[in-house]
Amino acid sequence: MQLKNKIIVITGGATGIGRALIAQLLPTNTVISLDRNPAKIEALDKAYPQVYSLQADITIDSEIKAALRGIAKDFGRSDVLINNAAKGIQFNFTNIDEENLKEMLQQEVATNYLAPVLLTHQALSLLEKSPSPAVVFVSSGLAYMPIASFAGYCATKAALHAFAMSLRHQLKNTRIKVIEVLPPTVDTDFNKDIETPKMAPAAFAKACLAQIEKGNSCINIGQSKALLVLSRLLPGFAFKMLNH
Ligand SMILES: NC(=O)c1ccc[n+]([C@@H]2O[C@H](COP(=O)([O-])OP(=O)(O)OC[C@H]3O[C@@H](n4cnc5c(N)ncnc54)[C@H](OP(=O)(O)O)[C@@H]3O)[C@@H](O)[C@H]2O)c1
Question: Looking at the whole model, is its pTM more than 0.70?
Fold first, then answer.
């Protein structure tokens, strides 16, 4: 798939990986970013005035529906939907009260699993108007093997990974291509407190978009590639390596 003259909708494009993808997509495509935080939207608009920013919390149905109505009215279709926004919360199961645990898990499930699935469903009519539509799910290398302290986050990414595989099969006789991107550790706010080697967002975005253009539908980059192999061949070792 050539990423040129496409109308691309991305969630959480104001920061991190989303912003790096936008920077590389903008010169040749139209990009619409759905973000919920006004200060981040303002900063994105300032850095990239060509971006069409829409304020929407992806976990709030009415906001997503309003954004999609706006896109239908102004652009008529979407060629690519990139489900990128997510949140990750660290917790210790033995040291957290039930209310907080419930609240954290509900937020992660709503943002990382339900929102991309429902947004994709709601965007089907826009995607079907494209001659070569694609939906991208940004999951994580941690879908293969969890980091225990991010138990809820890893579980939602494993769920999204399984969903992407199933949806690819369900849509195999349609024109809609289902792509899953499983990033390694990338240097964003998401993991700013974690001491580990991190890939630069721009390098990640470049590698990711090159793989999409090559037609790959399950994109493992850097550590995620190693994690895929290790989780299959040496699962115990892979778990220990992540949780030393
Ligand atoms: N960085 C890594 O090492 C890494 C590794 C594997 C996978 N990933 C995945 O890559 C994707 C991008 O992450 P990142 O590293 O770029 O982190 P990031 O900079 O924190 O980006 C996530 C974006 O999603 C937005 N967001 C969260 N909840 C939202 C909601 N309900 N509605 C709208 N926007 C929302 C956040 O903004 P606000 O919360 O301020 O609204 C933020 O702008 C995520 O799916 C993440 O799981 C990242």
Answer: yes
